[in-house]
Amino acid sequence: MASTTAKVSQESKKNISFTSVKSLAESPELTSIPSSYTFTTNPDDEIVVDFDDVNDPIPIIDYSLLVTATPSQRAKTIHDINKACEHWGFFMLINHSISKSLMEKMVDQVFAFFNLKEEEKQEYAGKDVMDPLRYGTSFNASVDKVLFWRDFLRILVHPEFHSPDKPVGFRDTSAEYCKRSRKVGRELLKGISENLGLEPDYIDRTMNLDSGLQILTANLYPPCPQPEFAMGMPPHSDHGLLNLLMQNGVSGLQVFHNNKWINVSSTPNCLLVLVSDHLEVLSNGKYKSVLHRAVVSNKATRMSLATVIGPSLDTVVEPASELLDNQTNPPAYFGIKQRDFMELQRSNQFYGKSVLNKVKI
């Protein structure tokens, strides 16, 4: 990232108007980014390392040992999930039940959507955070002071399934992918419930996951001529309980751990599981939602597909009463409906844990 004193070229100071980063990146006149996309950080305040160089390696969880293994293997896997959630807020999931062919098909369909004509994509340019289909750029381009080098398609897929009509095949592929990823997420939450000393179905039941909110967000990060000056997505945590993230083979995700930004490589057939804000609240802070960000490249287009598993819109998310003790472990967060939490996210600065901090006691 650029320092706050870095200078942007005269050409980049032109505030060129484009409806998407993809169309901006493909403009033959583009040699430097418009000043509205310049995201500055102080390099003295951050350290970035590759995950291969981390003494405390990123946890890897074998999903098959959670669902089909012996009781002792399952118990060890649950214990490993506990350590990952507590110390990282993040882990890599292998041997899950989503096939390689389905993941590849989903990647192809996402690229096919972003390759539609701009006027076709604009048919889905929703404005409200609760619109079932929203195509757009940045995070909230109408109010963002600095625009992010990102286009997105955000779809509500549960309790009611939605999908764009184009491209052909997107609906069927995304429906199957969402069904399978939902099953994976709920199975992980059973193990997490047990880790917290609760009944296996506690989170599923109290968060009303039968009618819970599941959101599929496809993110496109085109090549950027000045990646040192731009950011795909700023440091943030996610709403919901868990975020299951898939990438297209191009790295760009960084997670914050032990005061360092860790580059997370894009491993084939792997899901990246991120602890989200509502799980931090429910666990009364035992598990911390992970800060993460997306950096961009001048060489390749990166795509990520995030599946957020969350409570129903009218569920009040608060610390589990079974975990509380007024003397040793008092509640650290106010209860808030999922609907209201999402409204806070829309109306506040999208940076760090700005929304979660508003419900801390």
What key attributes describe this structure?
metal ion binding, Jelly Rolls, single chain, eight-stranded mixed β-sheet, five-stranded mixed β-sheet, 361 residues, alpha+beta
Describe the structure.
This is Fe2OG dioxygenase domain-containing protein. It comes from Lupinus angustifolius (Narrow-leaved blue lupine). One of its GO terms (molecular function) is metal ion binding. Belongs to the iron/ascorbate-dependent oxidoreductase family. Residues 211-311 form the Fe2OG dioxygenase domain. With 361 residues, this protein is an alpha+beta fold. It has a single domain, classed as B-lactam Antibiotic, Isopenicillin N Synthase, Chain (Jelly Rolls, Sandwich), CATH 2.60.120.330. Helices cover 25% and strands 20% of the residues. It is built from 9 helices and 15 strands. The chain has helices at residues 21-25, 64-67, 71-87, 100-114, 118-121, 170-195, 202-206, 277-282, 338-347; strands at 48-50, 60-62, 90-94, 133-137, 151-158, 214-221, 233-236, 242-247, 253-257, 260-264, 271-275, 292-294, 302-309, 316-317, 336-337. An 8-stranded mixed sheet has the order 2-3-11-8-13-6-5-4. The protein has a 5-stranded mixed sheet with strand order 1-10-9-12-7, with no helix packed on it. Strand 9 and strand 10 (260-264) form a beta hairpin. Helix 4 (100-114) crosses helix 6. It is globular, with a radius of gyration of 20 Å.
